[in-house]
Amino acid sequence: MFLQDSGSPLMEQLSFFHDHALLILVIITVLVGQLMFSLFFNKFSHRYLLEGQTIEVIWTVLPAVTLIFIALPSLRLIYILDEINNPVISVKSIGHQWYWSYEYSDFKNIEFDSYMIPINDMKPFNFRLLDVDNRMVIPFESQIRLLVTSTDVIHSWTIPALGVKIDATPGRLNQVSFSTNRSGLFFGQCSEICGANHSFMPIVMESISPKYFIKWISKMIEV
């Protein structure tokens, strides 16, 4: 009922499918509940009732049709999530125990590590256990290709507001494509239990305008 505001077209489609499936579940729950309520409290009986082929056909066909109404949008969404469009920027994210590192190979191979800010070093505007010292920065309304891997154990790069969840597996390079439709900060966390400090390797992605992104890249190259 309380999904985050979507920050990407992918998450919008996921929210629509969630509402679609939830509506079907509510209809089924109300129908079955009403039938059970009437069965408990009515006094109807039929001494010679042996079969009812009509009702048996109905309660076999209706669930099958209902499953089709859920399966078709679900399959469409799976293919949309796997679609790799022409990316403007490729960013590589590497999972470590217990921090993330990022590489912008399109821009003279900019590299930096992203650690959670300790509670003792937090500023008033930082979010406890969610903020990092170096954020991943991308331009909004641009197609981004994220390459994800790991150096030790399985991690999972996850940002719920974008509808993105991809495993970081040692020795394997996974990729996902996404874009953001607005500027802002998007928070996430590792979604695979990866060790003692699994809860302390947050992900923060900053979506900014392309003009400011170029300035940020220029500054990072100078450093």
TrEMBL record:
PROSITE patterns: COX2. This is Cytochrome c oxidase subunit 2. One of its GO terms (molecular function) is copper ion binding. Its main location: mitochondrion. Binds a copper A center. GO terms for biological process: ATP synthesis coupled electron transport. Residues 90-208 form the Cytochrome oxidase subunit II copper A binding domain. It comes from Rhizophagus dispar. It is a multi-pass membrane protein. It catalyses: 4 Fe(II)-[cytochrome c] + O2 + 8 H(+)(in) = 4 Fe(III)-[cytochrome c] + 2 H2O + 4 H(+)(out). Component of the cytochrome c oxidase, the last enzyme in the mitochondrial electron transport chain which drives oxidative phosphorylation. The respiratory chain contains 3 multisubunit complexes succinate dehydrogenase (complex II, CII), ubiquinol-cytochrome c oxidoreductase (cytochrome b-c1 complex, complex III, CIII) and cytochrome c oxidase (complex IV, CIV), that cooperate to transfer electrons derived from NADH and succinate to molecular oxygen, creating an electrochemical gradient over the inner membrane that drives transmembrane transport and the ATP synthase. The keyword Manganese does not apply. Belongs to the cytochrome c oxidase subunit 2 family. One of its GO terms (cellular component) is mitochondrial inner membrane.
